[in-house]
Amino acid sequence: MANIKNSEKNKIKSDLKKYLLSIPCENWRGGDSLAARDWCFRYYQSIPTEVFNLLLKETLVELEGVKGVTDLQALPADASYQNDGNAYRETSRFSVVNYHPIKLSELADDEGETQWIWHGFLGKSCITLFDALWKAGKTTFITHLIKAISSSMDFIGQYTAQTNVLVVSEEGKGLWVQRRNDCGLDCWVLPRPLKKRLNSNEWIDFITEMAKFCEEKKIGLFVIDTVSAFWCVDDENNASKVQAALLPLTSLLEQGIAVLLIHHFRKSGGDEGVAGRGSGALSSYVDIIVELRRLKGDGQSNERELKTYSRFNETPQDIVVEFTADGYVLKGAKKDVIFEKKLQNVLEILNNFPEGATANELHDAWQEEKKLSEHTIRNHLKALESQGKVFRYGDRLIGKSKTAIWKMVDSKLSVD
Fold first, then answer.
1. Contact present, 168 and 223 (Cβ < 8 Å)
2. Where does the pLDDT of residue 38 fall: very low under 50, low under 70, confident under 90, or very high at 90 and above?
3. Beta strands 164-169; 188-191: pairing state
């Protein structure tokens, strides 16, 4: 037999026994014996076919007489695993490959329309990756999102569709009880289900069981928080391992379930959809990437930027949200929010000059490390003038040039 460790041979035979003993004895022959091969062979594709077949025969011999089985003659002594053939494909209940291409002209027009759970962000049969730094507010954000979905309420300006939600969480029951009581949250949750790191076989079994639960409970949104705490990947920088761990999620997508994977940023951060920790295979595989970021230079603020990368035109790009006592609210596009912040800074400084000030005086009074240029301040003053918040009070001669003096429309105007 090929150079394979005895421990690995025993593991294959153990898996075969596990499957064969889980089905009626009369089904060990014919098609279900092929299903057994498929069920185990998908885990051991690097093992030569002839070796696998020999182990299967040995397993059947060892099981002879178990559960009243005495006749295994229906399985020919020279039976072998074949990786092709219609009979194999049709009888294998655990097949991991779809062998049926579809002609584009046969697809209905409505199959090209995405059905949204959260418009632009979470689509049925789509995977969304939600990235952020530690303690940046990921779970708080997701909690309020789930609450909105449970009630079919708009969330940060986008509509949601009511559906049941299942969260696989790395947090304990106590925190979820608090969220239920504080936020009125109601969803299915699986808190800290693992006692050890899963291997690839166990990860596939775990996702298979979750898919069964989702089908039974009519779950429309499946959340893993965080994905790195549960999947079988022991090296997040290994692209092939990451992709192999993502493929089993197809069993959820085939049910029309939206999948949301919560993930951490790498320590160094990153741009263009690669801020997430580990291999870029994760970011390239998913349909939508949402990055939750603090606004630069404002670490104490409750405002967050949502930076997105998506296959869909419906996904909003670079928006700012704020966490308030009433939950998250949309502030607007990032460029507009930043521009309004700069206008606000100009207003706050101008408010210290009840008799009015020039752009040069405002520039000199600027306290921030990165000052705006006088030219930019003048442009901001003109924008504030168009908003009716400042007006040109007169001119002041500086050298040989006249410079505009600007005043607040109301010197007591609040600059909140």
1. yes
2. low
3. parallel
Distance of alpha carbon 142 from alpha carbon 397, whole angstroms: 57
Cβ within 8 Å of residue 266, ≥6 positions away:
275, 276, 277, 278
Pairing of strands 303-310, 116-118: unpaired
Answer yes or no: are the C-beta atoms of 39 and 55 closer than 8 Å: no
pLDDT grade, residue 10 (50/70/90)? confident
The pLDDT of residue 297: 60
Distances (CA, A) of 183 to 87, 110, 177, 223, 326: 53, 36, 10, 18, 10
Q: What is the C-alpha to C-alpha distance for residues 60 and 28, in angstroms, rounded to an integer? A: 9
C-beta separation of 289 from 273 below 8 A: yes
What is the CA angle 156-161-165, rounded to 5?
A: 95
pTM, whole model, 2 decimals? Answer: 0.70
Tens of pLDDT, residues 114-169: 999 999 999 999 999 999 887 778 888 999 999 999 999 999 999 999 999 999 99
> What values do phi and psi take at 41, rounded to 5?
-65, -25
Using CA atoms of 287, 292, 296, 299 in order, give the dihedral in degrees to the nearest 10: -170
- Distance, in Å, from the CA atom of 85 to the CA atom of 9, rounded to the nearest integer, reads 26
Q: Which residues contact 70 (CB under 8 A, 6 or more apart)?
A: 64
Mark out the alpha helices in 228-317 (DSSP H runs). 239-246, 250-253, 281-285
- Give me the residues paired with residue 158 across strands: 155
133, containing H or E segment = none
Neighbours of 329 (CB within 10 A): 14
- Element housing 336 (H / E): helix 334-350
DSSP sequence for 52-86: HHHHHHHHHHHHTTGGG----TTS-TT----S--H
The alpha helices in 154-222, defined as continuous H runs, are 173-183, 200-217
As a whole number of angstroms, the distance between CA 208 and CA 219 comes to 14
How far is the C-alpha of 139 from the C-alpha of 117, rounded, in Å?
18
